[in-house]
Amino acid sequence: MCELEDDLNIFAKEIAEEYGYPVPTVVLTSRFKRKWGSCNVVTKVITLNRHFCENNGFETVYDLIKHEICHLRVPNHGPKFVRACNEMGIAFHTYIEHPDAVTEKGKNVYMCPGCGEFYYSFRKWKRSKSCTDCSGGYYNPKFKLIDVTA
């Protein structure tokens, strides 16, 4: 284990004990690209995105650990899960509370010809997509995203 993993395990233990949850083991992985974390209810292992944990502040990562600990009692994101998160004082999705969180960007880059917004993807898109802001949420060929991957 690395020093960051050790620290995260200490935080997870403190949080779990404070709220009466089972104490999980926290593991960091570089395999996650889009996902910030996951929780295995059976083994009580919380797996977190290494890039996310290394590039965000304490509060953001702390809230992510709380979110995953809530999954030890409620495996889905239903109303019971929302209540469990409220009891811990966090939004039921970490990205709501921390919209500016640093996440890993995909190597494929697409640009909107209308507004110039960039979209990143880990995989090449097989179908055409358009800018959600410019096209109002529906595909519009006028705002078809252009592949500008270098």
Describe the structure.
With 150 residues, this protein is of the alpha+beta class. The chain folds into 2 domains: 3-97, 2-Layer Sandwich (Zincin-like); 108-147, no CATH class. The chain is built from 6 helices and 6 strands. It has helices at residues 3-19, 50-55, 58-70, 79-88, 94-97, 132-135, and strands spanning 25-29, 37-40, 45-49, 108-111, 118-121, 146-147. A 3-stranded mixed sheet has the order 1-3-2. A 3-stranded antiparallel sheet has the order 5-4-6, with no helix packed on it. Helix 1 (3-19) packs across helix 3. The two termini are 36 Å apart. The mean pLDDT is 92.
Order of helices and strands: HEEEHHHHEEHE
Q: What's the gyration radius in Å?
A: 18 Å
**What is the CATH superfamily classification of the largest domain?**
Metalloproteases ("zincins"), catalytic domain
Count of individual domains: 2
Topology:
Elements: H1 3-19, E1 25-29, E2 37-40, E3 45-49, H2 50-55, H3 58-70, H4 79-88, H5 94-97, E4 108-111, E5 118-121, H6 132-135, E6 146-147
Parallel strand pairs: 1-3
Antiparallel strand pairs: 2-3, 4-5, 4-6
Q: Short summary of the structure?
A:
This protein is of the alpha+beta class and 150 residues long.
Structure keywords:
Zincin-like; single chain; 2 domains; alpha+beta; 150 residues; three-stranded mixed sheet
